[in-house]
Amino acid sequence: MTRSLWKAKAQKTNYPALKNNITVDVAIVGGGITGITSAYFLAKEGKKVAVLESHELAGGTTGDSTGNLYKMVDKRLHHIQSKWDEKTARAVAESRAAAVDLIENLVKEHEIKCDFKRVPWYLFSETNKKDETIEKEIITAKDYGIKADTLQELPIPVQVSSAIKVEGQAQFNPAAFVRGLAEKIDSENCHIYEHTNVHHIEKGEDHVLSTQHGTVTAKKVILATHSPKGIYPVQTAIYPHREYAIAAKLNSGDYPDGIYWDTEATFHTSMRTFKNHTGNYVLVLGGHHKVGQEDNYERFFEKLEQHARKLFDVAEIEYKWSAQHYKPADGLPYIGESSDDGIYFATGFSTDGLTYGVLSAMIFKDLLSGRENEWAELYKAKRFTPIKSAKNYIKENINVAKQYLKDLPGKAEAERFYEVGIGEGKVVEVDDEKWAVYKDETGQVHCHSAVCTHMDCIVDWNDAEKSWDCPCHGSRFEATGDVIEGPAFSPLDKRDVKSRKDS
Ligand code: FES
């Protein structure tokens, strides 16, 4: 089974589920870094806030992330500069640096035990094919006052053709940060509910959010759920991907802390170190792919392990996990109000989400208090950038259209339940309908409609995480049908296995 190092090491939480009907100023859906940091600020501003988390705090992408914080970006600053302009790239770097500083201040102010430390960030190429990329990033960094040192070698055992180092970036345990900050939120003004799944939002002058055992009425709603829950135009401009991580415990080797990004890796994309009283670890992260569009997901973990063993003296792989990210069409995240309706979201963070999550909270704090924010316009959620978005927009939406073709007759993976092995899931064609059929370790068969409850795409079995993943907008469901993440509100519809003769 997959398990994140951060969630395993962070303190547990025990917030109640919502059991009644309440009214607040701001309802926040999602208890990750965006939701909890927003709640912290808004409660401090005197607003009545409720946080509704469907699982446990930091139990989603935040707890499954890298734990890296940096002002640079996955897409590289020089790409932002060429797609947008110099002013934009500078603002991106400055706003992200401000978010990292803010995290550091919160950690210090509240003495949050989350292993926050400043570390260098490295960008390197193993062969000379990407030397030009490194060169451009050095020039761009220098233009923005970011000191980037060139290096001939790295402090980890990787041969490089070229490399740069930027000091002063940071790492922490993101789950420990979020859970620690949640304890410091003004509890008079903010209530946190865990295991409280929002399954419907009735929009109006006052929005009403329905959960299993109660409702929340609020004039303002923040969808801190990565992709916003429900159907929004922005979902055509954010593209869901998964990435994998392993934490390899080392027999020997004590490497300096740092964030190490490989520019040319087709598979492994970054590494970082981690130490505690049990030993030294190296985390290897990579294997991007579109959600729900692979045949063999377990192979990503296998390749990361091979890579770790090739470079380091690995004792064992203690943790392995995966996380989702959404790449934005025009290279920048979408943060702000959906459409003058009091619904706010923050999405399209790519793999830079911890820093952007806190930046989102900084923006929401001002917007929901009627103040201007210097970065709100740059990241605004309802921007329209057809020229900057066109290439990705066309390519990705053709890809989504192709996923809908899986609903055609004859496109199922099996026609009989006995073709589904123990611990396996398959899409089975039953009376012209696609069923998501999972056979658990005891041989019990769980049947659901394979039609995603968001916008009717056909889900795909993820063998590494035992989940049903939707290839269109990234909704993911447990093997037993419940929503894990993504824009879908409702679980997969149950189907009755007993109604089948061949079951
Ligand atoms: Fe949109 Fe499944 S996530 S159709």
Automatic annotation (TrEMBL):
GO molecular function, one term: metal ion binding
UniProtKB keywords: 2Fe-2S, Disulfide bond, Iron, Iron-sulfur, Metal-binding
GO terms under cellular component: cytoplasm; membrane
A Pfam family of this chain: Rieske
Positions in coiled-coil regions: none
Taxonomy, superkingdom: Bacteria
InterPro entries the record matches: FAD-dep_OxRdtase, FAD/NAD-bd_sf, Rieske_2Fe-2S, Rieske_2Fe-2S_sf, Rieske_Fe-S_prot_C, YhfW_C
Rieske domain location: 412-503
Record's keyword annotation contains Secreted: no
UniProt protein name: Glycine/D-amino acid oxidase
Organism in which the protein naturally occurs: Salinimicrobium catena
